[in-house]
Amino acid sequence: ALVNVGGDLAKLVPGRVSTEVDARLAYDTHGIIRRVHDLLRLYDEIAVPPERLLFKIPSTWQGIEASRLLESEGIQTHLTFVYSFAQAAAAAQAGASVIQIFVGRVRDWARSHSGDPEIEAAIQRGEDPGLALVTKAYNYIHKYGHKSKLMAAAVRNKQDIFSLLGVDYIIAPLKVLQSLKESITSPDEKYSYDRRLSPQSAARYDFTAEEV
């Protein structure tokens, strides 16, 4: 059923279709790889070529290693559930085609938990932790020439969109997209269509030796 839905979507949309690997395999590198190979065979039976496919894998250390091995075979992977810079950097180093960060979920966690040094540092700088993580991950990917594309998901409002302009991909609810249509841009930087993220800004971003 999963592959049939993916096949139908491939007929309707351009670009790639992302198929999620069973989350119960999140801590089983070889189980993930076997499952992706099985899915590829099923897609081949309905004439969907590998270049139209992404395989969505949880960003556990085992999942990141599976991504590295699959990418070495030319199979495109989509690493999800990235909630820290360490995960994002490891995913980029593994060569994942797409890395997905849930902006709103990081923000939600920060509201009800404390003690995470990465989140605390962002808050002390007066930054939203979810937006800060996307910015840092984007700059790392582009500054150091990794092939990965960064996807920002779970955006909650139009300010999230404005703050992330320039990121490779954004997943936004329909109501947020509709709010953009109603926006009138002004000199106020908060709601302007100026690009916030770019390879040029990434080149100027400073990372510590430990982060690199």
Automatic annotation (TrEMBL):
Keyword Cytoplasm assigned: yes
Gene Ontology annotations of biological process type: carbohydrate metabolic process
Keyword annotations from UniProtKB, A to Z: Cytoplasm, Schiff base
Coiled-coil zones: none
TM regions (residue ranges): none
Domain of life: Eukaryota
SUPFAM superfamilies: Aldolase
Matches recorded under InterPro entries: Aldolase_TIM, TAL/FSA
Protein name stated in the entry: Transaldolase
Organism: Gossypium davidsonii
